[in-house]
């Protein structure tokens, strides 16, 4: 096997399994888990993540595009794979070929899919999305019961679930959350009152799984919680989550420069003292944001070193003055733990004017993912 780049992402699959158990403790015995593995499982590697979750009994997965769904099918993921992102009729074939479950949110395309399924003598599983306040995709709440009934009557389609999505990932607006939950519950009651039976109703993202038991219904859709990260920096930490992903690099060049030395593009940083500067082989083409320029920190030997000057496409500088042990080839942590200190995804988000979600799925595919497999553990 060729040796990896000095810049790698470590994926701790044992942590993933522990986080799944934290989801299960919340969702209870009857709550099915629909694991959100879109965007390459938030940068963690969709195939490996879905494989471990499947081994652990998860039978439902969510992706954003048919291509993401096809990648999972080709890797042998057998459960339902819902395409959450919305598709055009031109993509129906791709969905049918891979036995994916499209999310439907308009009648015209539902009818078109029904016709295509019937022509091929097939029954296609679908999920129906309703908009309870996110304003993105979904039937309007007022018309949803009637539209769901109409789709339920179409040949060639089988409704697997009805779902909606919270507009506040961390539930930070209790009134909006209450309204969305009440609206979704009303739709469910109206549909059930018509005698239409739908296997799964689901609304809960990670935030709701951890903090809103009344929204669990009989399926939950965790994303960020599986990856061991809370949905906001200030989210109350009651669940034992362990970050799955860490990101590290190595020092590939080390030099001493005098005071007054300008560094990197645009010379936005000039040393104020004699300094030791480490060059790190990671840049914005790896997903290490240019916004981290002169703001982020890295860890080495359990100490913090500031990122100085502009982050460039493939390289970044850190000021390691005073960290006397720093040497060529040393490991440097960009995200994760290092000798008792830690840089979290939310720290990087703060330095990058972003959110942990974007930091994680922004780590490019050119950064090799190294998977650390858990020992079989029958006690969990
Ligand atoms: C429709 C839908 N459900 C669930 C999730 C998972 O959300 P979270 O990562 O906050 O758990 C997402 C994430 O964006 C989503 O778009």
Number of helices: 11
CATH topology of the largest domain: TIM Barrel
Residue windows where pLDDT falls under 50 for at least 5 positions = none
CATH class of the largest domain: Alpha Beta
Classify the oligomer. single chain
Hey, roughly how much beta strand do the residues contain? Answer: 25-35%
The hetero compounds bound to this protein are: pyridoxal-5'-phosphate
Class computed from helices, strands and strand pairing: alpha/beta
The appropriate CATH architecture of the largest domain is Alpha-Beta Barrel
Domain count: the total is 2
Question: So what's the overall shape?
Answer: elongated
What is the strand tally?
21
**By CATH's scheme, which homologous superfamily of the largest domain applies?**
Alanine racemase
Largest sheet: 8 strands, parallel, barrel
- Mean pLDDT metric: 96
Query: What is the terminal-to-terminal distance?
Result: 33 Å
Give Rg in angstroms: 24 Å
Strand order of the largest sheet: 2-3-4-5-6-8-9-10
């Amino acid at each position: 096997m060729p040796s990896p780049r000095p810049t790698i992402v470590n994926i701790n699959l044992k942590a993933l399994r522990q986080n799944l158990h934290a989801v299960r403790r919340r969702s209870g015995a009857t709550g099915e888990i629909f694991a959100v593995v879109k965007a390459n499982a938030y940068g963690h590697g969709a195939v490996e993540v879905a494989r471990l979750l499947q081994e652990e009994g998860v039978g439902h997965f969510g992706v954003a595009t048919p291509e993401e769904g096809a990648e999972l099918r080709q890797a042998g993921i057998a459960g339902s794979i819902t395409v959450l992102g919305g598709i055009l009729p031109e993509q129906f074939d791709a969905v049918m070929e891979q036995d994916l479950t499209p999310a439907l949110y308009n009648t015209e395309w539902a009818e078109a899919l029904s016709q295509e399924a019937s022509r091929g003598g097939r029954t296609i599983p679908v999920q129906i999305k309703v908009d309870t306040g996110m304003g993105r995709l979904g039937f309007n709440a007022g018309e949803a019961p009637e539209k769901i009934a109409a789709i339920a009557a179409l040949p060639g389609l089988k409704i697997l679930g009805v779902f909606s999505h919270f507009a506040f990932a961390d539930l930070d607006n209790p009134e909006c959350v209450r309204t969305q939950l009440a609206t979704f519950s009303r739709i469910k009651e109206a549909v059930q009152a018509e005698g239409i039976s739908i296997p799964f109703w689901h609304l809960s993202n990670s935030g709701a799984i951890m903090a809103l038991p009344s929204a669990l219904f009989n399926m939950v859709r965790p994303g960020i919680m599986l990856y061991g990260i809370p949905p906001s920096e200030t989210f109350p930490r009651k669940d034992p989550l362990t970050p799955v992903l860490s990101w590290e690099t190595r020092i590939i060049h080390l030099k001493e420069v005098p005071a007054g030395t300008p560094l990197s593009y645009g010379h936005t940083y000039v040393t104020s003292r004699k300094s030791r500067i480490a060059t790190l082989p990671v840049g914005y083409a790896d997903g290490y944001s240019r916004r981290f320029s002169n703001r982020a920190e890295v860890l080495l030997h359990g100490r913090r070193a500031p990122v100085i000057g502009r982050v460039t496409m493939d390289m970044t500088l850190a000021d390691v003055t005073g960290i006397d042990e720093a040497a060529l080839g040393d490991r440097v942590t960009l995200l994760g733990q290092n000798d008792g200190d830690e840089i979290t995804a939310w720290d990087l988000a703060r330095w990058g004017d972003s959110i942990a979600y974007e930091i994680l799925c922004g780590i490019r595919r050119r950064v090799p993912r190294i998977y650390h497999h858990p020992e079989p553990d029958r006690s969990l």
